[in-house]
């Protein structure tokens, strides 16, 4: 949520450099964008809307080798030029990601000191606070930042330029992500590695309250007592090409097409053999209860985990939305494992839930994509999915791998609870290794998904229905469609429609029904007939074994024969592609849907 970049080094075409680097972070927010760069003074350029609007304003000839950039996901104040970052107050210019929670209190204090404010943002107040502390006159800029941190409640990743030290860039963070890129004769600060990969693969993960001081030829990192730190340098393990569309019209489509590969990578990392699987998976034997906490699609993946773990391992699982879990009364004990699922590893509510449980002494396990992210670092144990970089705001490949990881966790639980024989285990692991091939077969039917999308893209409302695990997948299908196509949809347990919602069904209402569970198929068919009788047109997603000559169906997707356990991996693919094609037909900005951001670092 909001992306920030800072650059200092040998390159001098600063406006182009900042704008191009900022584009790699645009998925974090795209309400407005801005840059600040140093000539004989600090210059600021900003624009509401996407980065392309800012790009139109840049002067390619200006030379400078120090600058900051920001792409905004609005929190305080509307998305206009005035609220866009950078913000300057007195002699201090900053870009900010996070939320200053006590900004009103600080605003009152600073107003009494004579400060006035142009924007509605909390960020301008942070800039004013830095300026105010500077004016006290007794501190170096490092000391000003140290003092600043004692005033702030909330989260921040900040890039800072002080007018009295124009050859130096400062940065600091607390509970919002920030990394330091270490290139040859150049340094960068950025919200994540995708912004630095075009310059260098080497980076340092900054910790809470670290303060960074960057000059042309040196970097220094301090803790909040201003003691110098020696932090280890890490290396990005993916290439710059991964951050490009590779010929696809959208990142989302590219990422769906990558699903067989990333699934294969993840499965092979954990399941070379039964022995390696046993070694790589944590020991869960002491846990009698599992809580899964996450947001959005990650929570939907958690629901799949719940169905699998409860059905196959006989262990009770509660799945909760992180923004609720963090504030509610939670019933857990030392025999409860809390699993946090997060692609980014930076989702504020998920982090808060993790910290709450840790403070209560509960064991935590993260299922995370971004290596070294806050959740990965703070969980007692972490299982990485290997999705690579996911740029489209709507998650596809990371969701798939979250589900796959929960399948692996459940297999380990089944072993620990004697719910699977050795024979069944090796067969299941073999089937899992085969699943990327099955996904390829499902993707190959893309013409069918386009045809379905053609028949629904002009509709206003849509329903998804399913029972059991198919209901959990329906939730994800509905979210995917809503978020990128703006077509309203609801996911319902197939048996629940008639308790109210069926009153919305009329002639030509489209319903996507998912039916992959043999034991529930007849029940789902009855529910389908109920809506067909009221004029609905039903798109059925089922599997070969359950397919029949259903003449009451409008359109049908038949998934290939597969181990029942693996069906969720296959079922979600048509839903992702249908959502994609609907949004494409509607001519929308698929990778950057309105109002959204990839990494939700505010609560
Ligand atoms: C939907 C989507 C979001 C995320 C959610 C959690 O397509 O991407 O619902 O799943 O914001 O994000 P992470 O997994 O980064 O914690």
Over the alpha carbons, how many angstroms does the gyration radius reach? 25 Å
Please tally the β strands and state the result.
25
Question: Which fold does the CATH topology of the largest domain refer to?
Answer: Glutamine Phosphoribosylpyrophosphate, subunit 1, domain 1
CATH class of the largest domain: Alpha Beta
Q: Which ligands, by name, code or SMILES, are bound?
A: fructose -6-phosphate
Total helical elements: 18
Q: What does this molecule look like?
A:
- With 603 residues, the protein is α/β, with parallel strands linked by helices.
- The chain folds into three domains: 3-236, Aminohydrolase, N-terminal nucleophile (Ntn) domain (Glutamine Phosphoribosylpyrophosphate, subunit 1, domain 1); 243-443, Rossmann fold, CATH 3.40.50; 445-590, Glucose-6-phosphate isomerase like protein, domain 1 (Rossmann fold, 3-Layer(aba) Sandwich).
- It has 18 helices and 25 strands.
- The strands form four sheets. The protein has an eight-stranded antiparallel sheet. A seven-stranded antiparallel sheet has the order 5-6-7-8-12-13-14. It has a five-stranded parallel sheet with strand order 17-16-18-19-20, with helices on both faces.
- The N and C termini lie close together (11 Å).
- Residues 295-298, 342-344, 347, 350, 394-395, 479, 483, 599-600 line the site of fructose -6-phosphate.
